[in-house]
Amino acid sequence: MPETNQQEAGRGLGYGFAAYGIWGLFPLFWPLLEPGAADDLLANRMVWSLVAVVLLLIVQRHWGWIRPLLRQPRRLAMLGVAATVISVNWGVYIWGVNSGHVVETSLGYFINPLVTIAFGVLVLKERLRRAQWVAVGIGALAVAVLTVGYGRLPWIALTLALSFATYGLLKKTVGLSGLESLAAESFFMFPLALGYLIHLELTGRGTFGHTVPGEYGWGHTGLLMLSGLITAVPLLFFGAAAVRVPLSMLGLIQYLAPVFQFLIGIAVFHESMPPARWAGFALVWAALAVLTWDALRRVRADRARTTAASTATAASTATAATAVVAASATATATTAGAGAPAGTGAPDAVPVRR
C-alpha cells in the first residue's frame, strides 16, 4: 500500500506539472491565431470549449451531476456569474498576450494569491496570520511601484487577478469539479459566443472557415477548433492532480504558470523590463516568498500536531490494552485458585509425624 500511495502521489505531481505547464505555455499559442482579433478568438474558444467538454463527458459517461444541478437555481445563477467572470479573464488574457503584454499577464497570476487572500478577509471574513498581512502589504506596495514603472495602473494584471480570484471564490461556493464546472459554464457561454461568431461572419470580420493567401489558411481554422481542447485538457490534469497530492503542494506548483509566462515574455517576445518594473516584480516575488514560507511552516506544524496526537492515542491505547491484559490475568489466577480440586494446592502446614 505505501508503494501504491507513492506511485499515486508521483502521478499526481506529474498531472499538476502538466496542467500548470500547459497554462504557462499559453502565450505561445494565441499569437498563432493571428490575424484573428481577440473577440474572434474568445468567441471561438467559448464555442469549441463546449464541444470539447461534451466529447470528454461522452467518453467518461459522466452525466449524473447534471440533473441535480438543474434543480438548484442558486447554483445555476452562480455558474452563470462564473461564466461571465471567466469570459472577462479569457478575453483580457488573449488581448494582453496578442498586444505585447505577456509580462503583465504573468504579473496578474503572480498576484492572484494575494488577491485571493484579500477576498478571504473581505468576503469570507477570515482572519489572517501575521505573515499573510505582511505579504498583502508587500503586494500593495508592489502595485504602487509597478504603477509608477508602467506610468499607469497595471490594469491588465489587476483585471486578471481580480477576475480569477472571483472565479475561484464562485467555484469554491458551487462545489463542482473542473470538468463539470467548465461544461456548465460553457453552456452559458455558448449561445452568446455562437451568436457573436455569426455577427462576425455577417460583418466580414470572422476568420473561422476562411483562407487568405499569404496570411492564413485552413490551419488557422484547425487551431481555432483546437482552442477548446487546450482549454479542457489542463483542467482534466488539474482535477487528476488535486485528488492525488495535497492542495498545499498544488499551491506551490501554481507558480510554474506565471514563471513560464514571464520567461516567455522576456526571452521570446523581448518585452522591456525597466528597473522600476524589476523592482515591482521583486516585491511581488518577496510577498510570494513570505506566503510560501508561512504555508510550509503551517504544514509542518499541522504534521507535528497530527504526529503528536497519533502518538498520544497509540500510547493511550497501549496503556488501556496493558491494563485489560493485567486485569484478565488477575481474574484468571483468582478463578484458578478458587476452583482448583482438593489436594492440588500448597498445604497450609507440614503435617507432623507423631
Account of the protein in words:
The chain has 13 helices and no strands. By secondary structure, the protein is an all-alpha fold. The chain has one domain. The N and C termini lie far apart (76 Å).
Straight-line distance between termini: 76 Å
Q: What kind of sheet is the major sheet?
A: none
Task: Estimate percent helicity.
Answer: over 70%
Radius of gyration (CA) equals 31 Å
Give a summary of the structure in a few sentences:
The chain is an all-alpha fold. The protein contains 13 helices and no strands.
Topology, element by element:
Elements: H1 2-24, H2 26-29, H3 38-60, H4 66-70, H5 73-98, H6 102-122, H7 130-150, H8 155-174, H9 178-202, H10 218-242, H11 247-253, H12 256-267, H13 275-338
Helix pairs in contact: 1-10, 1-12, 3-5, 3-9, 3-10, 5-8, 5-9, 6-7, 6-8, 6-12, 6-13, 7-13
Q: Keyphrases for this structure?
A:
disordered C terminus; 13 helices; single chain; mainly alpha; 354 residues
